[in-house]
Amino acid sequence: MLSEGDAEGLWEKLHWSVSHHNAIKSFVAAQGLSAELMRDRYLDLTQDLFVRLLEKNRWEFYLDANYTTETIEHELNHLEIPNLISVQLRKRHPEAFRIARRVSNILKTSSEFKYYGGAGGRSQASGRLVSRIYGLSSWSPSVLMKEESTLPDLIRGVDFRMRETRRSGRGRSSQIIISNKALRQLLIDIFDATQSLMEVRTVRLLALSKVAVEDSRFVSVDEQVAPAPGSTQFESYRIDLADKRPSPEEELISSETDRELDYFAEDVISSLKRVVRNKPRRFSKLVRVVWYCYFDPVSRSQGEIAGLMGVSDSLVCHYRKLFDAYVQHIPLPFEQWIALNRSIETRLAAIMSGIATDGRNEARKQSWEADAQTDLPKAYIARAAVRG
To answer: CA–CA separation, 209 vs 199, rounded Å?
Structure first.
C-alpha cells in the first residue's frame, strides 16, 4: 500500500489496528460512550494517528528503511498507538497522568521497592509496565498478593496527603502537587498497610486515592453528554440549563423601578428639608448627622460625631431620631430598599461636598477679614490674586 500510494487502503488498515488495540478499547470504554459515539471516537483517533504519522514522515521512512508489513504493524501497535493514548490521557487528565508516571518511576528506581515478577510469572522486568508486580525490598519472597478488592479497605488508615500549592513544576505551568520524597513515603505506607504484592496499575490507583488531584476541564453547555455506564438510556442527551438572564420585560420593569426610586429619593431629601422647616443651617446639620451615622465608611459614635460637628450629643441624637422616624414608615420591600439606599447615598454625598466647599469658602473669608484688620494692602493683594 505504501509503495502504491494507496492512502485510502492505509487509512482502513490503520482504523482496523486502532479499533482492535487493547489500549484504545480501554481508553474509549472508560468514557462510557454509546455504540455510535464509540465508532465516531475510533474514527477520530484513527485520523489523529494518521496525521501524526504523516507529520513525522513515518510513511516515507518505512519505505526508505524497507520495513516489512510485520515490522510496521509491530511499531504501530507497540509505539505509535501507545504514544497516541499517552497524549490523549495527558490532555484529558494531566495531573493524574503525571502522578501515575511518577509512581512508576519511583517503583523502578527507588531502593525501597523491589520487582517480584510479572503477571505471567516472569522473573525479568519485561512485558507491560502496568502488569509488573512490586513490593517492599525488605519483604521475604514468601509474601503473597492479596485480593485487589480488599486493598482499598486496608489503606483507610493511611493519611491523605495535602496538595503542595507553593511550588510549581518545570516552566511554572503546573503545580508539584506532591514532592517525590512525600510520594515515595506514601507508597511505603500503602505497602505497609496492605502487606501485599501489587501490580503497578493497582499501586497507581491506591496512590491517586490519597493525593489531591484536580483534573476538571471546561466544556460547552451545549456539548452532548453520554449516559453513565449501566444506564438504560442508549442515546446521549444535552444539558439544558435555565437562562438566568432577565427577560426584556424584567429589564423594563427594573429600569422603571429605578426611576421611581430616584424620584422617591428626591422626595426623601425634600421631606428632610420640611422636617427642619427649610432652614439651611439645620438642614446642613441634619444631613451631616445622617451621613456620619449611616453612610460614612468610618464608624463613629454619637459623641465622636458631636465633637466633629461642634454640637452637643443631644442634638445629634435628636436629628438621628428625626431621620429614623421618617424612614421607618416608608413601605418598601427589601430589594427596593437596597436601590433606594444607593440613590440616597449619592444625593447626600453631593450635598456633603457642597457643605465642605461652603466651609472652605467661609474659612477663607474669615482669614481675609482677619488679614484686612491687620494689614489692609496685603488683604487687597490676596483677594486680587484669588480672583485672578
So the answer is: 16
Judged by DSSP in three states, 93 sits in coil
Q: Give me the phi and psi of 228, to 5 degrees please.
A: -65, 150
- At 206, list the grid cell: 491506591
Environment class of 285 (CB within 10 Å of its CB; exposed 0-12, middle 13-18, buried 19+)? buried
Which conformational region is residue 164 in: left (phi greater than 0), alpha (psi within -120 to 50 degrees), or beta? beta
Give the contacts of 186 (CB within 8 A, at least 6 positions apart): 158, 161, 178, 207, 210, 211
Q: How far apart, in whole angstroms, are the C-alpha atoms of residue 24 and residue 83?
A: 11
DSSP 3-state assignment of 61? Answer: helix
The rounded distance, in Å, linking the Cα atoms of 93 and 13 is 29
Under 8 Å between Cβ of 136 and 114: yes
Write out the H or E segment, with its range, that includes residue 16: helix 7-19
pTM, rounded to two decimals = 0.50
pLDDT digits (tens, 9 = 90+) for 233-260: 545 556 667 778 888 888 888 888 888 8
The pLDDT confidence band at residue 172, using thresholds 50, 70 and 90, is: low
Segment 284-322, tens digit of pLDDT: 898 999 988 888 888 888 888 998 888 898 888 988 888
